[in-house]
């Protein structure tokens, strides 16, 4: 009798925890969609901001975030692929592999505001770029690097060794094997990792607030030095701090909804491949 | 495979060195740039409770305390819920529903910090203000508000990692325990949880690391009042007053002003260094507990 009671109680409590976690997401999406949907219109996407955010749209914020994400992706890919190859192909020694994994682990936990300060010192001041899309993109690349690398590393670990052995038996050199067997076979890992990495950095503010993004007055960047961009998350960040204007509030929620849509889309596209890798990693 | 120094190999090593170089550069730069403040303040940079940039007084203690209070409270709130939810998802739910929960948690992990900040500003701080009326708070911007918000933000991390840890317990052990006549709760309590204890602890530590380093959402709701060293440390008071964490200080516009002044800038870099070391320490502890968790928690 007591055993059954404990059983039901335990199950009930853990179920409540799970419900709470899922409920938060449900509430969050509902709260933002309900207030954000009225702001969404064609003009919201195609106009630039007017009247300090109270009117107009978020065209250049979308463009700016796009530029930052693209820069970060381009900068991350070669490094992520290199690190994964180093881990999967070149390093034979378990200790060194572990050292590399630990480095990625620490980088993954690095507070993004610390990366922001780092970028402020290096790019804005040492390099003299001022606030520039490139410094922001490079910083975001540092933040997304571990996500992309780990996804690719795990995909490589599930690659059947007979592929490499067969290629080796055909007399291919190591670099040929990498280019014509390993990389094409792990392309899904690269794509999944990139999407997850992008989802992770799309909403980051801390790294770009001192290095790349301003609130208003920027359009397409014309060079590298002193060429900041607008961005979606910084838009919300500034507006939410001192705004009681209902017109602005509607725009804030609209922007939040757009951002949420962007991030959810990125992670949902990556999801099937990711769950598959996950299952393989556990039972493969 | 004969390994020669092909172009591929050279570029692989080059880019890997770049990655390692960035990490070393981060540490070295912050140490070098913070030297002026250590010369100026000595250990009182860590222990001093006053931060006045105009008179060159830089004591980081209130911010360190704020960081610790906010992140441990967040962990205290998110830890049990996260582990409870993970237990329910991995032990009691059929595979399909489990997948659905997992997807929801993945999405929750991806919600940008500023969106949490927005909800915090518009809802949470009012709720906290109402909740705290008996204590007569000045506003809803308190360390507690920051902690509750952080708890929601680290919940997915804790839950995903806890779920992974529980799932790494072999199914055969559960079956054997069921065969001995234990019901599913007893299996969880006597087999799954003890077997995955290290992984669960690692999940909690990683959640704590995330909480320590989060800047933007906390910035919006914590009140950001300098020099808040509580009169009574062991009471609820420090939590229900506004305060400052290391991250909110770093994210404030003071960072822009500070650059021209070596000592002031040193103080900012010193804060970043302290934070970096705290987080790296916790991350390494978590890593050594459960080496390189198989999961890729998205944020």
From TrEMBL, chain A:
Membrane topology annotation: Multi-pass membrane protein
Listed Gene3D superfamilies: MetI-like (1.10.3720.10)
Highest taxon above the source species: Bacteria
Pfam families associated with the record: BPD_transp_1 (PF00528)
SUPFAM superfamilies: MetI-like (SSF161098)
Domain ABC transmembrane type-1: 62-270
Molecular function as annotated in GO: phosphate transmembrane transporter activity
GO biological process, one term: phosphate ion transmembrane transport
Keywords: Cell membrane, Membrane, Transmembrane, Transmembrane helix, Transport
Primary residence: membrane
Subcellular localization: Cell membrane
GO cellular component labels: plasma membrane
InterPro entries: MetI-like, MetI-like_sf, Phosphate_PstA
Transmembrane segments: 12-33, 58-91, 103-127, 133-153, 177-199, 252-271
Signal sequence segment: none
PANTHER family in the record: PHOSPHATE TRANSPORT SYSTEM PERMEASE PROTEIN PSTA-RELATED
Family classification: Belongs to the binding-protein-dependent transport system permease family. CysTW subfamily.
Protein name (record): Phosphate transport system permease protein PstA
Organism listed in the record: Roseimicrobium gellanilyticum
TrEMBL record, chain B:
Membrane topology type: Multi-pass membrane protein
Keyword Transmembrane annotated: yes
UniProt cross-references to Pfam families, sorted A to Z: BPD_transp_1 (PF00528)
GO biological process: phosphate ion transport
Gene Ontology CC terms: plasma membrane
Membrane-crossing residue ranges in chain numbering: 12-38, 58-87, 99-123, 143-162, 200-222, 263-287
Superkingdom of origin: Bacteria
GO molecular function, one term: phosphate transmembrane transporter activity
Residues annotated as domain ABC transmembrane type-1: 64-286
Role, per record: Part of the binding-protein-dependent transport system for phosphate; probably responsible for the translocation of the substrate across the membrane.
NCBIfam families: phosphate_pstC
UniProt name for this protein: Phosphate transport system permease protein
Organism: Roseimicrobium gellanilyticum
Lineage of origin: Bacteria, Pseudomonadati, Verrucomicrobiota, Verrucomicrobiia, Verrucomicrobiales
